[in-house]
Amino acid sequence: MKTKQKPLVSIIMGSDSDLSIMQKAADVCKEFQVEYEMKIHSAHRVPSHVKNYIESLPKRGIKVIIAGAGLAAHLPGVCAAFTHLPVIGVPIKSGSLNGLDALLSIVQMPSGIPVATVAIDGAKNAGLLAIQILGTSDSKIAKKFQEYKKKMAKEVLKKDAQLTKLK
Ligand code: RP5
To answer: For the chain, how many structural domains are there in total?
Structure first.
């Protein structure tokens, strides 16, 4: 029987309303066969749970955190405050400012506590960045990422060739 790998990536979000976007980060992990876990924990609604959960991650072998939140999006920054692990922030589009509020909340971290911020709803890129981070200490993951980029380049060139034929 194949033993289950321990999760390497934690995908945390402020609300279940963020799930459809954050699922894209999980899909990337699945594509690269990297184990992950998902959690709904709001920095405002359950702050002590966020602290306990984030502090539990290093001893469980998690290497990267992807944190998504919308509106006054403090979750990624709060995660970064409680850990030495790298945190990737995903601003979620919601409310009357369409995610600009979340983008500015996440990207404008004070000096000393970085959060690597992706685009509004950019959970796919957050997943890919997590894979790249893991690839710095795992050559199999790094190789898969290189293959992913080669495949993407091939697809672009194929589309270009098709467009040229149409002319
Ligand atoms: C944020 O508030 C969450 O991350 C979510 O994007 C937003 C709205 O949350 P709900 O009111 O839908 O639970 O904390």
So the answer is: 1
Given a contact cutoff of 8 angstroms between Cβ atoms, the answer to whether 129 and 116 are in contact is yes
Q: pLDDT tens digits, residue range 9-34?
A: 999 999 999 999 999 999 999 999 99
Tens digit of each residue's pLDDT (9 = 90 or more) over 47-64: 999 999 999 999 999 999
Which protein residue's CA is at the shortest distance from atom 12 of ligand 1?
17
What's the CATH number where 39 sits? 3.40.50.1970
CA-17 nearest atom, ligand 1 = 12
Answer whether residue 84 is part of any domain. Answer: yes
For atom 14 of ligand 1, which residue has the closest CA? 14
In a domain, 1, yes or no: no
Which CB contacts under 8 angstroms, 24+ apart, belong to 100-103? 101/70, 101/71, 101/72, 101/73, 102/69, 102/70, 102/71, 102/72, 102/73
